[in-house]
Amino acid sequence: MAHGDITHIDIPVADLAIATAFYTRLFGWQIQEVPGFEGYPMWQAPNQISGGGLAPRSEGFTQPRSYVEVDSIDATIASATDAGGAIVMAKQPIDDARWWAVISDPDGNVIGLYEQAPSA
């Protein structure tokens, strides 16, 4: 994927089993837990490109969130805050070669950021 591509969509849910059954039946998504990410089943659409996760709903996470791939989370956060956006969650590691963060735009829309090391 390239800078600016939507790479992942998280859907907040209250019950993982019910949500898994619902989205599998509705869209034919393949949903399963991935080793190392227990409690966060990931889904993949039939096109084998689109995907995301079913994440536990929380006070600050009540609506689906799209993640955009960026070349540099640090540079994107700096650009976003310069343009009137805000940091919702600072950059954090997913593993040794991937990171994520969450920002909001000037209207309060929340957008996830995803960065992958070039060699990954």
Automatic annotation (TrEMBL):
Domain of life (superkingdom) = Bacteria
Annotated VOC domain ranges read 5-116
Check the record and name the Pfam families matching this protein.
Answer: Ble-like_N
Q: InterPro entries from the xrefs?
A: Anthracycline_SecMetBiosynth, Glyas_Bleomycin-R_OHBP_Dase, Glyoxy/Ble-like_N, VOC_core
Name the UniProt record assigns to this protein: VOC family protein
Q: Which organism is it from?
A: Microbacterium schleiferi
Its taxonomic path starts at: Bacteria, Bacillati, Actinomycetota, Actinomycetes, Micrococcales
